[in-house]
Write a structure and sequence with these properties.
The complex is a heterodimer of chains A (about 675) and B (about 270).
Chain A: E1 3-9, E2 18-24, E3 27-33, H1 46-49, E4 65-68, E5 71-74, H2 77-95, E6 100-103, H3 110-124, E7 129-130, H4 133-136, H5 138-148, E8 165-169, H6 173-176, H7 178-189, E9 193-197, E10 210-212, H8 219-232, H9 238-244, E11 245-246, H10 248-255, H11 260-267, H12 271-283, E12 287-291, H13 293-296, H14 301-314, E13 325-327, H15 334-339, E14 346-347, E15 351-352, H16 356-366, H17 378-386, E16 392-396, H18 400-403, H19 407-416, E17 419-424, E18 436-439, E19 448-451, E20 457-460, H20 473-483, H21 494-504, H22 513-518, E21 546-547, E22 566-571, H23 587-592, E23 597-601, H24 602-607, E24 615-620, E25 623-632, E26 639-643, E27 656-659, E28 666-667, E29 671-677
Parallel strand pairs in A: 6-7, 6-16, 8-9, 8-12, 9-10, 11-21, 12-13, 16-17, 17-18, 22-26, 23-25
Antiparallel strand pairs in A: 1-2, 2-3, 4-5, 4-18, 14-15, 19-20, 22-29, 23-26, 24-25, 24-29, 27-28
Helix pairs in contact in A: 2-20, 3-20, 3-21, 5-14, 8-11, 8-12, 8-14, 11-12, 17-19
Chain B: H1 3-15, E1 20-27, E2 30-37, E3 45-46, H2 53-60, E4 69-73, H3 75-86, E5 95-99, H4 104-109, H5 133-139, H6 143-154, H7 162-165, H8 192-201, H9 211-215, H10 222-237
Parallel strand pairs in B: 1-4, 4-5
Antiparallel strand pairs in B: 1-2, 1-3
Classes of the chains: A alpha/beta (about 675), B alpha/beta (about 270).
């Protein structure tokens, strides 16, 4: 009998908690939180405690499959890989390499994502590589890159507890990032002011000093309104604005019309609440902003992110401890998947593919010429597939058939593809459509690194063997790269891949598996003797001055009508994660939230004759689903909320695929909907 | 291997005839639990990070067969093992205890009044901590104020179940806290029943190890709550958990006679 306690990193949200997997003879039996970990401090949420439960589930994919006469049948690795390679080569030869797209994965390691984008760029010859960051924080990456020169969380998770004020917006922190929520609660216990702006009451807002409800889709109005109050009352940081930023005059001009009265009209936030919130934030010595999908998933998400950056800069809350603009990334490695270049416009380390110098560096390293123009995004690829521009898709560990907006159209698009290959750990709605299915290894079955939302490199250690013939995605990627005829896919471990990435991405220059395993390192970490950078922008921005970008309120892409009078917003609950592939196979999590529901305000429910637990139908211009009503005062009248975890009542049958023009992120957070008793 | 590892191995394997040893060691820039056999070198041992080794041991115990396991044992761990042995969950003969005296800081952190193991193998005994000041403060409050204090604390609960998962004396196969009647699937925070059931359920077994409080992401002072319930148990029944010989006074017939059978109930 062999008992081991293997230290690894949680596979759920982007907080990056670490724990020991308890293993007895290759069987996972439990989770022990790591007490010395700087981020999780020996504490976990319910998902973390159950992170072992899905790993050895009987539904795991255990052998490759290929489609044969309309059905998926068991195949050997050679047959499946050769099929992928021959189809990709054929389609690429007939229609050009840009007819192929590779979807990387926020659930896979840095090393794997590095290899996925290398397959697209160096083996296929296209910049068509993207992943689900497109659906969550694409607007953050674009917006903060423009404002600050770096598209990531400016500060770190432990700093929350020492802030004097935390402004939380569009983040249900205690449910979606429980251990970050816990730090904010600790700040609260120590006397910090917590201000939550959200259309819903959340577990955090119910404890906060101030809980403000805005109409969904009106964020720029209240943020500009706060900036105006701050400037009018002289609460802005003149020295910071003068020395560290540009564009203040234009900003002052654009916020001028956003009087508290005007903001109340647009957002429904009572003017005194806005004034109080502005004063609380501006008067705090150290104020942090935390935000998530409620900000980014809008057709003007990039602009909302810039507005928040403006708010932080005019009050001098950037470049110091316990301040900053802090996007909370929602997947274990969505930060790393972006860092590793799983984006159509950026090489590893946020180097632009259009930048000739950067391209030269990668061309030299990879020994081939690389395409000079940026590729297509995941969201645009779905549209391109419908018109036959994208013909082949290789997906690593994503489930667009549940996670993308307007599923009916996604399904149509996927069926239009000439070839679809999916590497996955469980059968999903997406693998059902695949021509080739490759069984992958999950987080507990491989080595590698994740990068947490606060830029810390978090190692994984293999605890158990993958089931059956399943293989880690980095091995699958190396095999595909080699068989596609490319150089540079001969890696014998993830550590070697990380070394190559470190050589090419300066922000990871000093990172190695060995170093990350011995200490907490946060990028930028340019050299082997560098200790990493917890707080960004101390003393100056990488781009010189921070850019105050004037942005205006614009209504959401879809407005309510007589037929669709409700605003539908979507999100997570505490117990499930994304499309539920893992959590819904974890009995203790499934017990807590076993079925889909829609939250509806008590007054709306009463008017429509709906009682708690009644079956209801929710429809939008794109589809209809049936589910249970959860009648509550925790949501504004006129707004309804559906968690998107449930395939049997998929919220994304309803959502609007309207895109932010810069980041191409869909507007998951606002769509017009109808609610009826079933 | 540091001197501490050598000493622990010596006590476990040479002196007391264990087959396996459960301890904490430095690994991957952190400190975590490890189970070793005689010939293994686990690296540098540590005793300053309070892992709940009894919980960790009981998780793996069903897979251990007849092996004799040694573990580093604080006074509270010793008492937890007594509670478990009394209920037939662990077999005294298969456990080797290596007594660890907690440091002054550890004793302060746990407001611990009973901190010296029956045999000290590692460390120097510290003075016990006379009182839990929060408990004293709460006891002096009106019932309404005290209820308001706890209600406010419980509002922070995020239902991680960490207090239960890490507790050395939570051992039911089916946890009543996962039973729909008492804790319906309605998100967070869980209702009053969640905390009250847990409170009473542990009344005759809690050994005040403090693991619930250390595990709580919301910083709810759960150890203070435990101490207050334990104080009531002492006042009402003159009973203190962790006594190997005495059965729980809650396990009686309707005539207040102790239940005679081997009680395995929780």
């Amino acid at each position: 009998m062999r008992v081991e306690h293997v230290l690894t990193t949680c596979p759920y949200c982007g907080t990056g908690c670490r724990f020991y997997l308890q293993v007895v003879d290759n069987k996972l039996i439990g989770v022990v939180p790591c007490k010395t970990d700087e981020i999780s401090q020996g504490r976990l949420c319910i998902k973390g405690y159950n992170a072992h439960a899905f790993v050895q589930h009987p539904d795991r994919l255990t052998h490759p499959m290929v489609r044969d006469g309309g059905h998926l049948r068991k195949a050997t690795w050679d047959e499946a890989l050769d099929k992928v390679v021959s189809e990709v080569k054929r389609i690429s030869a007939e229609h050009g390499p840009d007819s192929v797209i590779v979807l990387a994965s926020a659930k896979c390691t840095n090393e794997e994502n590095y290899l996925f984008q290398k397959i697209a760029r160096a083996a296929i010859g296209t910049n068509n590589v993207d992943h689900c960051a497109r659906l969550c924080h694409a607007s953050t990456v674009a917006g903060l890159l423009m404002s600050f020169g770096s598209g990531a969380m400016t500060n770190t998770i432990p700093e929350f507890e020492n802030a004097d004020c935390v402004l939380v917006t569009g983040s249900n922190t205690l449910e979606a990032h429980p251990l970050i929520g816990a730090r904010i609660l600790r700040a609260h216990d120590k006397g910090a002011k917590i201000v939550v702006v959200d259309p819903r009451d959340t577990p955090l807002s119910r404890l906060a000093h101030s809980s403000i409800h805005q109409q969904p889709g009106t964020d720029i109005a209240w943020i500009n309104g706060m900036i105006k109050i701050i400037i009018d009352e002289g609460l802005h940081d003149e020295a910071f604005i003068r020395d560290r930023t540009s564009g203040f005059d234009e900003l002052r001009k654009i916020v001028e019309p956003y009087t508290p009265e005007k903001v109340e009209e647009i957002t429904q936030i009572p003017k005194q609440e806005l004034i109080d919130a502005a004063r609380t934030y501006a008067n705090a010595e150290k104020a942090m902003i935390a935000y998530a999908m409620g900000v980014t998933q809008h057709s003007n998400g990039t602009n909302i992110v810039r507005a928040l950056a403006n708010l932080a800069m005019v009050t001098g809350n950037v470049g110091r401890e316990s301040t900053g603009v802090n996007p909370l990334r929602g997947q274990c490695n969505v930060q790393g998947a972006c860092d590793a270049g799983g984006l159509p416009d950026l090489f590893p380390g946020y180097q632009r593919v259009e930048d000739a110098e950067a391209r030269k560096r990668f061309e030299t390293a990879w020994g081939r010429t690389l395409p000079p123009t940026k590729g297509t995004t995941l969201t645009c690829a779905m549209k391109d597939a419908l018109i036959g521009k994208v013909k082949a898709m290789i997906i690593f560990g994503e489930n667009p058939m549940l996670s993308d907006p307007d599923i009916a159209h996604v399904e149509e698009a996927m069926k239009e593809l000439e070839f679809l290959a999916v590497a996955e750990i469980f059968p999903t709605d997406t693998t059902k459509l695949a021509d080739v299915v490759l069984p992958g290894a999950c987080y507990a079955e491989k080595d590698g690194t994740f990068t947490s939302t606060d830029r810390a490199i978090r190692p994984l250690h293999k605890a158990v063997d993958p089931p059956g013939e399943a293989k880690p995605d980095w091995m699958i990627a190396c095999e595909l790269g080699k068989r596609l005829g490319a150089q540079g896919f001969d890696f014998s471990s993830p550590a070697e891949v990380l070394d190559e990435m470190a050589r090419l991405a300066p922000i990871y220059g000093g990172i190695s598996y060995e170093r990350a395993d011995a200490q907490v390192l946060r990028w930028p970490c340019p050299s082997k003797d560098h200790m990493g950078t917890p707080v960004l922008h101390i003393g100056g921005f990488k781009i010189g001055k921070g850019v105050l970008v004037p942005v205006d309120h614009a209504p959401p892409a879809e407005e309510t009508s007589d037929e669709y009078p409700f605003i539908l917003t979507t999100g997570r609950n505490l117990f499930h994660f994304h499309t539920g592939t893992m959590t819904r196979r974890s009995p203790k999590l499934e017990r807590e939230a076993p079925e889909p529901y829609v939250e509806v305000n008590t007054s709306d429910a009463k008017r429509l004759g709906i009682s708690n637990s009644d079956r209801v139908r929710v429809s939008s211009r794109r589809g209809e689903i049936a589910l249970k009503a959860r009648v509550t005062d925790w949501i504004m009248p006129g707004v309804i909320f559906i968690p998107f975890h449930y395939a049997e009542a998929a919220a994304n049958r309803l959502t609007n695929p309207a895109l932010d023009p810069v980041a191409k992120i869909p507007e998951f957070k606002v769509c017009a909907a109808q609610l009826k008793k079933a | 291997m540091n001197d501490l590892t050598k000493k622990l191995s010596e006590i476990a394997f040479e002196e007391r005839g264990a087959d396996l040893l459960l301890l904490m060691v430095e690994r991957h820039g952190n400190v975590g639990p490890v189970l070793i056999s005689k010939a293994e070198d686990p690296g540098n041992a540590r005793t300053d990070v309070p892992y709940q080794l009894v919980t960790i041991l009981t998780n793996i115990l069903p897979f251990m067969g007849k092996a004799k396991v040694a573990l580093v044992c604080r006074r509270c761990d010793e008492k937890a093992l007594a509670e478990l042995a009394k209920r037939g969950i662990v077999d005294d003969a298969s456990i080797v205890k290596i007594g660890l005296a907690c440091t002054k800081e550890q004793v302060q952190e746990c407001r611990c009044s009973d901190c010296v193991p029956s045999k000290v193998d590692i460390g120097e005994p510290s003075e016990p901590c006379p009182e839990d000041s929060l408990a004293t403060e709460l006891a002096a409050m009106s019932t309404e104020d005290r209820a308001a204090f706890w209600k406010r604390q419980f509002q922070k609960c995020n239902k991680c179940f960490g207090c239960t998962v890490n507790c050395p004396v939570c051992f039911c196969d089916d946890c009543v806290l996962e039973e729909r009647t008492y804790t319906p699937e309605e998100g967070i925070p869980p209702g009053q029943a969640f905390h009250l059931i847990r409170s009473f359920h542990l009344a005759d077994k809690c050994v005040e190890c403090g693991e619930c409080e250390r595990s709580c992401p919301a910083d709810i002072p759960l150890l203070t709550l435990r101490k207050m319930v334990n104080r009531d148990m002492k006042d009402l029944f003159n009973y203190t958990s962790g006594d190997r010989e005495r059965k729980s006074p809650l396990l009686t017939t309707l005539d207040d006679q102790p239940l005679e059978d081997d009680v395995h109930a929780c």
